[in-house]
Amino acid sequence: MSATESGNVIAVESLTRKFGRKAALDNVSLAVPEGCVYGLVGGNGAGKTTLVKHLLGTFKAQTGSVRVLGEDPVRSPVEVLSRVGYLSEDRDLPGWMRVRDWLRYSEAFYPAWDAEYAERLRERFGLDPDTRIKRLSRGETAKAGLLAALAFRPPLLLLDEPSSGLDPSARRNILEAIIRTVAGEGRTVFFSSHLLEEVERVADRVAMLHQGRLVFEGTMEDLHATHHRWMLRFPQAPAGHPNLPGALHLEGDGQDWTAVSEGDAERFRTEALAAGAEITGHSGASLEEVFLARVGHAAVLED
Amino acid sequence: MPHRKWNKYWALAWEQLLVTGSVCAAAFGVNAAFAGVAGLSYASGGTSLGDARAMAGSGAVLLSMLIAIIASVARQNAAGELSLDFDPRLRRMPVYTLPLVSLVFFVRTGCLFLFAAVGAAQWYWFGSDFDPAALYFLLIAYLVLQTIVWTRSGLTGIEYLVGGSVLAVALGTLYGLQLPDATFALLVLVYAAAFLVSLAGIALIRRDARWPLPRPGEIFDAITGLNASPRHPFRNGLAAQVWYEGRRAGWLLLFTSATFTVIGFVILRSGDYLNYDDRYPWNYSRYLWLYPWVPYIALLLAAPIAGAVALSTGAGPTFMRPLETRHLALAKLVALFRALAIALPLAAVVSALASALSDTALWDIMMDAWNHGEIDLAGLLAWRAGPMLLMAVAAWALMFARSLESLAIAILSAACFVIGLVLADLNFMNDEYLGNIAVASVPMAVIIVVTGARYRKALRSGVLPGRAFDIAAAICALSAILVLLYAGSVQFDANFLWVGLACGCLLVLPGASVSLHLQRQRHR
């Protein structure tokens, strides 16, 4: 694949997008390195799909810039789209087509289409070539879309909520396996999801969007190294929330509290002990815990 | 006692005679029962129906014929299930195809024709007004159905449509020629065609072969792209997109205009029936002249619907494919143009048929002129081509009503048509050609300026390549030259020029406006 000069397959800088007065994206900047599996998480209305549409060129940046594979997707849609395998969230495949027609139609647009690979994937996905797409289940439709996105071995695979409609087995055995295979071949995967466990298992890097703003962006190693989960017990129930400046999030009642901290663990330990708390447990925070800590429960409950 | 061995052809004929004869005998039983009950009821004065004898004479015959036809076409296979094809057992018989098909075909049709003759006699005997056309139509329907089920493994749904259209055209032609018995002539034609098609079809099926030429359905699909699955890899993305747009929106124009045509005819016919004995103040029969216009009006109603679907980009992976916006626009234009090129001649044929069947005064005048040699074939075609051309341009413009700039120019063009034609006619009577030119110049100037501005914008935005402008200019110039040539060949009338230029603008307008429309949709 042709990497960009900076080594970033996707480069978004200061991207802002407003619909009326509402900012769907607010000064978002991120970079996706080549060969990376990049997870984008966020609640409903966080701006995930808006960001993906900017990457595809269907939205024009109001401010800031978007580069995909070194090109502006609005100025050069053909150059970008011919190298991006895309699966949309709403699976808007033409229902009147048969699976065979769908593959033949898609093949025409991509010179690098690998017909044998497509056939292998079709068999693996269990898709009947003579079935019309409108007769497929939601999960099967997702597989048909994924098949067309994969069969030309694109340098960048862009998946918008790929798990939607797939059962847990299909998610693990097909989707995650494919993502790992693609990444293993040195290609890049960018996917949005609200299934945090899945993102945590698969992604190398993660970005969190909340109300159009990027609240975290970094590698999973960074996330685990800098975020900690603490179990705290106070001798007496504090009046209100305990005063722990290093805590991103505190949850509890009475004497027992759970905290998620960011940054130096030793500093937070010192803070907690100084506040009179006994540390009854300490571990690295999971992606879900970090997400809850940064975004709050409201966004998660919406999902 | 030793019996004499039967000849295989005689055995086959006997079997077919027995099968079809039984069917006809059973149908005759139904006929006799129905006619007998009705006749007895009439004789005893026990019926409240107005004319029981007439019902017995015609209704029983038609009903029993229908039963016999359905039973003859459908049959049970060895498993006792309903089957619709040429019996596989017969196909495997050690008999040459020609005698095999001839025997089965002529025995079956002979039985049914004999039954029809009996029905006709009964019709007479019951004293009804005998209309042989009803029986002929039933027999034609039988022949068509029989041919389809015997050869259906080599036919597609599209071919039924083509065959039906050919029959409709034949019928219209025969009626148009005012033969003394056009339906009988059609029956003879269909009879011969059904035998030949059945013979050829079964011969190929027996060899496990297919039609030596591409199936008509394939040819139709290749031309229209309306219902075809891609049989070969597409040459490129543009070819795939043309196929996609044809499948998505191309068929819609045909389907919708056909539906509207049927609805229009039903409304008009209902009006005629309601007006049967002048019970209503309105008089639908005065509007018989509307019949020929129904297909065209239906086409005009269908055009914006098909255009809106084609230009809509809400569903499907339209913008997710690596295809230039101008190619996307081109694919949509090609699909719509192809659909129009198919729908328009069909509408013209139906219009001509409706014109003939509705016995309009204009049709009578034309036929009188034809019979007296006052008008030749070219004149007759020109008479039909005028409205066709007008409707083509109007339908083409209406397809792009979804695109606002197209709609604005279409309205201006329509105004130009009206001004150019109506005022020109008025001025012609007053010999004021200069007034005509002055009035028509204003909207034409607006159209040309607006169209030019759209193209300039399209060129500057990079949506259209530079050569598109040259092509557009060439089309405009060609339109103007053709119009001038035509105007020069007849008495010059300035309105031809304006109408021609309006046509040219309308033809090239979508090239720019659709690209701009899609560009806006693609990068919002």
Radius of gyration of chain A: 22 Å
Would you tell me the structural class of the helices and strands of chain A?
alpha/beta
- Average residue-wise pLDDT of chain A: 84
Portion in beta strands of chain B:
under 5%
Number of domains of chain B: 3
Under the CATH scheme, the architecture of the largest domain in chain A is 3-Layer(aba) Sandwich
The count of helical stretches of chain B stands at 17
Characterize the main sheet of chain A: 6 strands, mixed
Indicate the proportion of strand residues of chain A: 25-35%
Mean pLDDT of chain B: 72
What portion of residues of chain B is helical? over 70%
Structure in words:
The complex is a heterodimer of chains A (303) and B (524). Chain A has 303 residues and is of the alpha/beta class. In chain A, 34% of the residues lie in helices and 30% in strands. Chain A has 2 domains: 8-211, P-loop containing nucleotide triphosphate hydrolases (Rossmann fold, 3-Layer(aba) Sandwich), CATH 3.40.50; 223-302, 2-Layer Sandwich (Alpha-Beta Plaits), CATH 3.30.70. In chain A, strand 6, helix 6 and strand 7 (188-193) form a beta-alpha-beta unit. Mean pLDDT of chain A is 84; it is low at 298-303. By secondary structure, chain B is mainly alpha-helical. Chain B folds into 3 domains: 8-223, no CATH class; 225-401, no CATH class; 403-524. Chain B is built from 17 helices and 2 strands. Chain B has helices at residues 8-43, 52-73, 88-91, 97-125, 132-151, 157-176, 182-206, 216-224, 237-274, 294-311, 325-357, 361-371, 377-398, 404-430, 433-461, 466-489, 494-522; strands spanning 75-76, 82-83. A two-stranded antiparallel ribbon of chain B has the order 1-2. The longest helix of chain B has 38 residues, at 237-274. Chain B is elongated. In chain B, 35% of the residues are buried. The A-B interface holds A 56-60, 74, 77-82, 86, 88, 92-94, 96-98, 100-101, 104-110 and B 229-230, 233-237, 239-240, 243-244, 247-248, 315-317, 319-325, 522-524.
